[in-house]
Write a structure and sequence with these properties.
Helix content is 21%, strand content 15%. With 82 residues, the chain is an alpha+beta fold. It has one domain. The longest helix has 10 residues. The model has no long low-confidence stretch (mean pLDDT 89).
Length: 82
């Protein structure tokens, strides 16, 4: 957890600069085969984690740059590789 927080330094959603109530999130959920590897973990502020991702059913585009993560709305699935 500490490694991910130190690496990211704040919420990694593109345009968000929040450092308040930071939480770790699996980019590819464990239920969909995601791992605890550092490459699959990112830091989100409380709002993006609980409201956008879990509350509204959005996902994170796993192919977006690490410090400019993009949110995928429900029904759009995950972006295809490459």
């Amino acid at each position: 957890r500490r490694l991910v927080l130190n690496r990211d330094g704040g919420c990694t959603i593109d345009g968000c600069t929040s450092r308040y109530r930071l939480e770790i999130h699996h980019i590819i959920p464990r239920s969909q085969g995601g791992t605890h590897d550092l490459e699959n973990l990112t830091t989100l502020c409380w709002w993006h984690h609980h409201i956008a991702i879990h509350g509204r059913g959005h996902n994170i585009d796993p192919h977006s740059p690490p410090h400019r993560r993009r949110i995928i709305p429900p029904g759009h699935g995950r972006a295809p590789p490459g």
